[in-house]
Amino acid sequence: xxxxxxxxxxxxxxxxxxxxxxxxxxxxxxxxxxxxxxxxxxxxxxxxxxxxxxxxxxxxxxxxxxxxxxxxxxxxxxxxxxxxxxxxxxxxxxxxxxxxxxxxxxxxxxxxxxxxxxxxxxxxxxxxxxxxxxxxxxxxxxxxxxxxxxxxxxxxxxxxxxxxxxxxxxxxxxxxxxxxxxxxxxxxxxxxxxxxxxxxxxxxxxxxxxxxxxxxxxxxxxxxxxxxxxxxxxxxxxxxxxxxxxxxxxxxxxxxxxxxxxxxxxxxxxxxxxxxxxxxxxxxxxxxxxxxxxxxxxxxxxxxxxxxxxxxxxxxxxxxxxxxxxxxxxxxxxxxxxxxxxxxxxxxxxxxxxxxxxxxxxxxxxxxxxxxxxxxxxxxxxxxxxxxxxxxxxxxxxxxxxxxxxxxxxxxxxxxxxxxxxxxxxxxxxxxxxxxxxxxxxxxxxxxxxxxxxxxxxxxxxxxxxxxxxxxxxxxxxxxxxxxxxxxxxxxxxxxxxxxxxxxxxxxxxxxxxxxxxxxxxxxxxxxxxxxxxxxxxxxxxxxxxxxxxxxxxxxxxxxxxxxxxxxxxxxxxxxxxxxxxxxxxxxxxx
Length: 591
What we know:
alpha+beta, DNA primase DNAg catalytic core, N-terminal domain, five-stranded antiparallel beta sheet, five-stranded mixed beta sheet, 27 helices, 16 strands, 49% helix, 12% strand, disordered C terminus, primosome
C-alpha cells in the first residue's frame, strides 16, 4: 500500500502542465492550457489542463483526471507504476514500509497483521512464481494459444495442487485470531475449524480495481472438473456486481475504438487480447448489472455484449438487456453479438481470426431490435391475445428506459406490430405522465432541485474550508432517494479535510461519486466562480435550501390539514411555518 499522505505530497509537488506537455504540446488559453485531445481524434482543441486545479478534462470525449490518471490512461501504467514515474520526476522515493508489512511476521503478542490488499498482493506474487515452476500449467496456456507476454500483461498465475500451499507464506495461517485470509477469500474454514486453500490446481487470473490493485481472483481448472471457473467470494475489497475483469488492460483500446466488448469468461478476454482485440472485458461469475453498464458507458459510447449463440448465451444476453435499460443514455449504443452455438469468443477468434470476430462485433444487433425480436418470438401476432401479450411484456421494460427518443422509437415499432397508434401504446404501457400519475395520486412534497445541490458542490470543491460550516441538520434532511443528495453527504467528510482538487479526485478514484466530481470540476474549467464571491454564494444556497425544507414540511402538513388529521402540536407547527414563510416574504408553498 502506498500511504495516502505520500500521494498528497506527490500531487502537491507535481505540475500537471509539465507532465502532460512532455507528450502533448500545450498552448496557453486564458487561465488554462489547451491541446487537441490525445484520447480521441479531433481537429479543434477541446482538451483543457488547469494548472490551478491540477486537473485535465476533454470537452469532446470526457477524458479527465489528475497527473496520475493521465499517466495511467495515456501511458497504460498501473496505479503503482504511475506513482513511481511521478515520484522519480519529482525526486521522491515511494515509501515501502506498508508494502513490506505484508511480508513481516507480526511481533509476538501483537495483533498486527497484513491488510487485505497486502494479502492479495502477496498471494498474487506467489501464484505468478508458481506458474513459472509448473510445466503443466505453462503447457495448458500454450495450448490455448497464449504467449508469455500476454500472460504477464494479465498477471496470470497458477495455484498448485494441495490443500495448504499458502500456509508457508503466512505463519498465522492456522491462528484463530488471524482472519485476514478468510476475509480475503483465499482460505476456507470447515465446520471442524480446519483451514484450507480455496484455489487448488487452477490457472489464476487476478482481478484489479481502478488503481491496478489486486482485489480478487478467478481460477480456471486445467483439466476436467467442476466448477470450471471458481471466483473469489464477495469481500470488503470485492463486489461482483461492480467489477469487471480486464478493464485496466482494456482501457486504452476502449478509448481508441470507443467500444467495449463484454464477454463471459476470463479466457475469452485474454484470447481476444492475444489476437489484437484489446477492448474486451468480462463479468465475474454474475449477470451483467446496471452498475457494470454505467461504469462502461462512462468510458465509451458503444457497449457490445458478445455471448454464445446457444440458449444459455441468449438467456444471459436477455438478463444483460433487462439490467441495462435503466443505464441507457442519449447517444449511447448497446448491442448484442451472437456467435455460432459451437463457439465462444475464445474458440471463434482462434479458429476464424481477428477480422472475422471484428466483423461479428460490427454487425451486432442493436438493443431495440433484440428486445423486439425476443418479445415477438414467443407470441402470436396474428391474434389479439398475442398482440396484447406483446404489449404486456414490453410494458415493464419500456418503463425502465430513461431516454425519451429511444423509447419513442420502440413505441412506434410496437405500434406497427400491434396495429395501434403510438399514443395508444403509450397509454397502454402507462408511459405518459397522466397514466403514470393518476389524479388520485397524493401530492408529493417538493424535492430539492438538483441545481441547488450542484451549486453547493461547485462552491465547496473550490472552497472546501467552507464545508465545515454546513449544518448536519441541513444535509440530513435531504431526500434519501436523491442520488445527488447521497453523493453530497458522502463527499462532505472528504471536503472537510480541505483537500486540493487533484488530491480529492485521486482519493475518490473509482468510487461511485468520481464521475460527478469530475463533471463539477470540468464545469469550473469553463465557468469558474470568483474566489471572493464563494462565501456569499454559499450563504445564498444555504438560505434557499433552508426555505425549501420549510416548504417541504409545510406541504406535508397541508396534506394532513386537507384530510383533517392534524394533531394539536402539528397545528401549532403549521401556524409557525406560515408565519416564518411570510416573514421571509413567501406565501404558501414555492411553485
